[in-house]
């Protein structure tokens, strides 16, 4: 994932004008500007999600398994992209573990702020690609919601 200029986490990508590009061609053009060596195909497509609000956007999500060498190459390319330091502050690896305290790792990561549909897409990918066991994923999501409930309950008791 990427840390964006506005402090939100998101995935690399951008807008594609379907009049001039297929989804994959447009995505590869945008990714080429920021990441360089990754080419996605229709086989890498996972899902689409319509965002609601004043500016309706259809977010198409693609995922691809990489070797460690490919990941390192992408991370190095990202630092040298034209958007680094302006639109994108850096790459972030998602922790696929939960520490013994049941908050460290993935639960803490999920407590961050995400842009648009990025959190939904991340959770969907982790589940559908079997990257995190479903029960561990549910525990991580639940752990991020407990502090909010406790704070609300505590605030309600103090009123």
UniProtKB/TrEMBL annotation:
Cite the Pfam families for this sequence: Nudt16-like
Query: Would the keyword Glycoprotein be found if you checked this record's keyword annotation?
Result: no
Which keywords does the record carry? Nucleus, RNA-binding
One GO molecular-function entry: snoRNA binding
Entry's localization field? Nucleus
Please provide, in alphabetical order, the Gene Ontology terms of the cellular component aspect for this entry: nucleus
Keyword Nucleus belongs to the record: yes
Q: Which organism is it from?
A: Orthonyx spaldingii
The name under which this protein is listed is TIRR protein
């Amino acid at each position: 994932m990427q840390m964006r200029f506005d402090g939100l986490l998101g995935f690399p990508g951008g807008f594609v004008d379907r009049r001039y590009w297929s989804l994959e061609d447009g995505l590869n053009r945008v990714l080429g500007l920021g990441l360089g060596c990754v080419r996605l195909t229709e086989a890498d497509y996972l899902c689409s999600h319509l965002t609601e609000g004043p500016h309706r956007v259809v977010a198409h999500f693609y995922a691809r398994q990489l070797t460690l060498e490919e990941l390192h190459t992408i991370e190095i390319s990202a630092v040298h992209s034209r958007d680094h330091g302006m639109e994108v502050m850096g790459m972030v690896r998602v922790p696929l573990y939960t520490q013994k305290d049941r908050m460290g790792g993935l639960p803490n990561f999920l407590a961050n702020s995400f842009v648009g549909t990025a959190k939904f897409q991340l959770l969907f990918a982790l589940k559908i690609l079997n990257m995190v066991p479903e029960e561990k994923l549910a525990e991580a999501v639940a752990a991020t919601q407990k502090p909010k409930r406790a704070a609300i309950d505590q605030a309600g008791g103090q009123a």
